[in-house]
Structures are given as C-alpha cells and as structure tokens.
Amino acid sequence: MAARHKSVETKYMEERDAVLRGLRGLDRRTFLKVLAASAGAVMAKSLMPPHTFQLVEVANAAPDKTAEATGMAGKPPFTFAYISDTHLYPRTLNQRFVRGAVKAVEDVNALDPQPDFVLFGGDLAQLGRHEELELGRQILAELKAPVKMMVGEHDWFYDLGETWQDMFGPPNYSFDWKGVHVVVLMSVHEKDFWTARKMTPAERMQTVAGLDNGIQSRFEVGDEERKWLSDDLAKVPHTTPLLVFSHSPLYKYYRNWNFWTEDAEQVQAILKPYKHVTVIHGHTHQMLYNQIGNISFYGMLSTAWPWPYAPTGLPPLTIQMNRADPFDQFDGLGDGQLNVRPDGLADKIYNLWDRNPVSVKADYLVSHGKVARPPAPQFASY
Amino acid sequence: MKSARVVLFFLLAAVAVGTSFSSVNAQGPGPLADPKSTNQAGFPATLYLWVIPPDNQQTPAKIALGKALFFDDRLSADGKISCDHCHGPAKGFTDQLPTSEGIHAQFGQRNAPPILNALFNVTQFWDGRSPTLEAQIEGPVTNPVEMGMKSTDDAVAAVKSIPEYVKQFQEVFGRAPNFADIERAIAAYERTQLAFDSPFDKFINGDQSAISDSAKRGWSIFNGKGRCMSCHGWNPTQPLFTDQKFHNIGVSAHKSDFVPLARKALDIFSKTGGDSLAIDKLAIGTDMSGLGRFLVTKQPHDIGSFRTMSLRNLLVTEPYFHDGSQATLWDTIDHYNKGGVQNPYLDGGITPLGLTEAEEDDLIAFLATLTSPEYADAAKQEYDLQFKRSRTDRPQRDTAAANGDKGRGPGLAGPFGDIGPAQDLENPALLGGY
Q1: Which pLDDT score is estimated for A2?
Q2: Could you say which residues of chain A have pLDDT below 70?
Q3: Do B417 and A92 touch (CB under 8 A)?
Q4: Does any domain span residue A375?
Q5: Of the residues B101, B134, B138, B146, which is catalytic?
Q6: Which residue, A234, B61, B66, B372, could crosslink B185 as a Cys pair with Cβ 3.0–4.6 Å?
Q7: Is the torsion defined by CA of B223, B226, B231, B232 positive or negative?
Q8: Which candidate from B227, B276, B411 shows the least CB-CB separation from A142?
Q9: Are residues A28 and A94 located together in one domain of the fold?
C-alpha cells in the first residue's frame, strides 16, 4: 500500500480524531489548531458549532507539550480533585447543603480514572458542632480516592478544633507527591477576642461565622505555624515545585469579610525562594485567581452557596463569573480538578454544576494574563 | 396585530382550497387542523412578529402546500406514516402515546411533542438538537424508526412524482420541489398552530369569573409553594409557560446509569461524528435517549436534561415527560412533589415541595384552565378520567419524600431532613387575595 488517496469519510474521521485528541491534550496552540480545523469541517457541513468533549477526559490531561518542549518535563503529571466549603448543618435543619456535598462526592466518584487524591478545602461544618462534622465525615467517607483534609474557621471556633482534630488529625501537615512538595496550612487562627468578652463557644463560633463585624480579628497563619512552615521547607530544594493548601486566601482581598490573611506577606516571603508555587484556597466561594510574584493562587468553588465578589480588592487577573441563578441551588457552585504538569504548575478546571466547565491554565497566571486568557462570561458580573 | 388578523383571514380561505388533492381520507384532516386565528386572548402579537423568519414569510399558498405535505403519508418510506400520524390535530398535535410509533410498527424512545405553539420554541425537539421548525423536519423524515426515508432525496423524489405538488411548488417557490422548500412549506403550516384564548388568558386579562376558586388557589401554588413558575414561566410578552431551557428533573434517572451511558454516547460520537442526524439516531433509537441535552452539548451538566415544555393544552397531550412515563397530571405533580428522582445531575431547582393532595388538586384545576376553546370538550373528558383515576391510583405519590421525611439510608444515602416546607406556612401569594 503506497501513498493512498483519502476518501471524504477518512478525512472526516481524521478531523474528528484530531478534535478529540486535541481537546484531551488541551495545550493552547494545538487547541486553537483543532478548533480551527473542526470549525472548518463543521462549517463545510453547515452543522452546529463544535462541541467541547470535556466530560472527564480533561481531568486526565496528557502531559503538557509546551512543558516538555521547554525542558521543564521530567516528573510525572498528576491530577487531584477538590471539594470545598460544604458548610453542613445537621440533616434535620437543612438539606440543601447536604445535597450539595453529596452531589460533589458523586461527581468526583464519577471521574475515570480517579484523581490521585481529593483535597477537602475546609468549612466542612457550618457551626463546628460534632454532629455537623460527623455528617461531613460520613459523606466524605464515600469518596473512592484518598482524601486530604484541611480545616476552615467554621470547623474550628466552636471547640477550637478539638472535634475536628480528633476526627482528622493535625490541621497542618506536609507530604511529597510525585516530585511535588505539598503543604496543608491552618490559616484561620484568630487572636483571642472571646475571653475578655466572656463569650460562650456558640457565641464565639457565630461571631467568626459573620461578615462585616469588627469584633473578631483577622485570620492569620501565626508565628508558630510560620516557624513550622519554614522548618518544613528547610529540607526542600528551591527547585521543587510547591503546592500549598490554605483555607483563607494567602493574600489580602477584602478585609471586612475576612477574605484575608493578616500575615499573608510573611507567608509569601517564606515561599518566595521557590521557582513554582501554587496556592489553592477555599473560603471565598467563587471563581478567583491571582498571581503575586512567583505564587499562583486559585480559589475553590463551594458546594453550599456562591459569595458575590467583594466591593473592592478583586485580583485583576480574575475573570468574574456571571451572577448565579437564585432559583437554582446548584448554580455558581461546584467542585474542581487540578492537573499538575510535569513542571509542577497546575492547570485548573472549575467544574461548575449548572454551567460549562471553565479551564484556567497555569500559563495564564504565570504570564500575568498575557496568554491563555479564560473566556469571559456572556453577561456582566454582579 | 390588526394586520396579522387580516392575513389570517386570507390564510383560512386559501387553505380550504389548497388541501383538496392530499391523499388523506376523503373528509380531510378536519377543522382542528386549520390555521388558527391570531384573534385570541393572550396571543403574544409582538413575539409572533419576531418568530416568523424573514426568509420564510407566511403566505396562504405556502401554508396550504405545507398543510398538504403535513398530512401526506407518501413522505414516509412505506407510504403509511405522515407527520400527523404522531402529531394529530385531534390529540393536540400529539399521538397521546408514551413514545411514538413509526414505520413497520417500530416505537422510538421519545414522546411526540405538540406542534401547538411550537413556532415560539427557541429550539426544537426535547433536547433542542434543532434550531428551527424548518431544520427539524429532516430528523423524523429520515429517522429509520420514524418515517424511514433513506435520505431527503428520496422524500424529494416522492414529492416530485406527484404532479399536483410539482405545480404547487412552482407556484409557491417558482422552482421544482426540493427538500429546503418542503421544510419551508411544512414549517409555515406549523406556524399557524397558535393555541391561546384559554380561561386562564381571560382570567389574567381581568375576568374573575373565567376560572374556579380552586384554579385560583392553584395559580397561587403555581407561583409559590409549587415553584412551577420558576421554569414554566408566564409573562404577558412570553405567555408560553416555559423558560425554553433544559433541566434534569430525574425522569430517566430510575432506568439509566448516566455516567456509563454518557461515556458510551461519547464513544459512539467519536466514531460516527456527533452531527444532528447522529444525535437524532441515538435520541430516538437507543437507550442513550435518556441522556437528553447531553447528546447535543456533550457537557456533563446537561446529562438527563430535557427542554421545559409549554403547559398549554396539556390535558390533550398526555402522557407526560420525554418518555411519556407519567400517565396523568396527578402522577406528574407527584413526581415533582417528591423532588424528582435523585441523581447526580438533578437540577438545582428540583426539591421536595410538600404539597398536600388538596393542593395538588387545586394546582391541576389551574393547569386545566390552560386549555384552548377548540379542545375544551376533549380536555374536560380527560380531566374527569384522570381525576377519577387519581382518587384510587397514585403510583408516584410519596408523601414522606414530599415532606422531606424520607432519606436514602446512612452516609451518602441518609435522610435529607428539613426539605418539606412547613405545612403551616401561609402561601404569600394567597395573602393578597383576588
């Protein structure tokens, strides 16, 4: 069989294959090429616009070609999923948030192949009660993949972390995963505002759970834990990519809502010597990303409710999400996946439940918005 | 609005002449098949002007041709199935079957959607896989379990072999029959099927006596506790009782394992292509039908989602849902009342409603007021039948689930708690009174 003439059908099949392959790889140049090819094929046939075959393939993206080409390759890529901010009340009080948490677990369990692990981003409970945390523990126990737990302020301030630590262990820890050093922080310490005011545990918890109040202090990682972080990183070479999980954003976004970490700059300084640092945070319940120096920040979606964007302080790289449909309890919520590239940077997929998924590439952040800009929403944000 | 009325007058006159040679039975399709007047209470005149495509304006001759084609069984492979076989005027332009019968007594996977007011649909079919009335026609004509033509060329050949059609196409379009013109003519006829003028339309225009007290209470429930309005929206410019969107309400969840099914569909699309005809084949002919809108968008959040149907004349378009799985309105409301069937892709708006049986009766009394005058008798008959059945037979009623007292076991499957709205809550819509 020498050089063959390709039939119309063969060419068509090749185009389709290219679409599917390209969308799996999803490096930007190939993606555009594929997009153009498929758009051409589709227009020639006067069909509907091409579809994104994103079901689960994207979650298991092939090694990034650009990373290989630039010599950053070498370590195996991996994928992890996240679920965050479930804010569970007891079942007898509220079912909405239970539905959200269950949906997220079913979602992540449907991924094939499964992610290496699932990060839980904090605020499992709403008011830190034992039965709330126990309900969350039961729901998360259904996950097929191993779970890495992080604590949020809603889990902590009823009994200052006693129950949570009994169930899940120490709130800050680190581990190595396929060449990446992973650090889980407890970033929501507050200065003691309750003793002098003679607050009950419930009052303390309610105060921390509120927005716009001047009584509580700002979140902080704190002296002790920053020292722990420095010691932990002392053994880690500066060329090793870092993944840092924190509940609150490790930067200053909006103080009145505690979208804020008081000692953010000091923590950033500890992370500064490292070439690639990605910080994944919860707490803000919205699509949110930021780049400060060498550090890329991603905010996780909640499964309970979407916060509006704060009036000021929104990182300029963030492309805002449309206002969520108030009738649809799942709109603006979701879970997500991070595809860690061989160079240790992470591409992120916001798996919005009632919308199309949004992919935020590491390149978009490290280039400070010069390349791989995610699509803007159809309508203006609130 | 006035000019539209004048046009319709001419249309009616012309259609009476235009259908004389069709191969339907000697009596013709009857008065229910006639183009409808725009002089109806609740008729959305502005919207009507928007939905008539500029390149397919309504003309009496074109509508007459479209009507003849609509009722002509020679458009099918075995010469026995016309459009009205599944979209019969006497049955609200449906077939009143769970799923429709095509050639050689084959049954598809989908319930025939009504043609009434279909001109206002933003997308066509249960999954919106077609953007216009024109574009959707290729689907049923060539689908092997519907009209079964090998290709649209075969349909054109069938039409060309009939001299009256050749003459009429020449008059209407100035050229020989071709499929695009067949589509234009049939779509033009379908755009004459307007269904408003219901007791509800008169009520909302101010006639307090147009509907019963029970129906008025039902209208409150529709807007309040029942949450119906959130998807089956009504407003004066879009009085259609649909949001035109797609929702997973858990209809096919009880018989579909969505995730493997979705993978299977993607696998098939990767081999055969995912164009509209490939979608049509999976949607009508396979168990992947239950994936709904996902077949079109390939987005996971659309798995098991189907288009919100208009509620007008729903008493003559039973059974209900995309697979015709609910026989009565009581069963349908019972399905919503218990929060649908849980599945990972269930729409965020679907939640147990806690409706009592009396509230459901009121709600259905309201739904019955959405009947256009020409279907009043048929609807009354159907209402009585369904009402009688609902007194003894309620296969979908699950009071515990509706009140949120029922869960799915421990862990993931645990009881859901609070869902049912408190029974002693007053419906705010009722406090204002009428």
Answers
A1: 39
A2: 1-75, 378-382
A3: yes
A4: no
A5: B146
A6: B66
A7: negative
A8: B411
A9: no
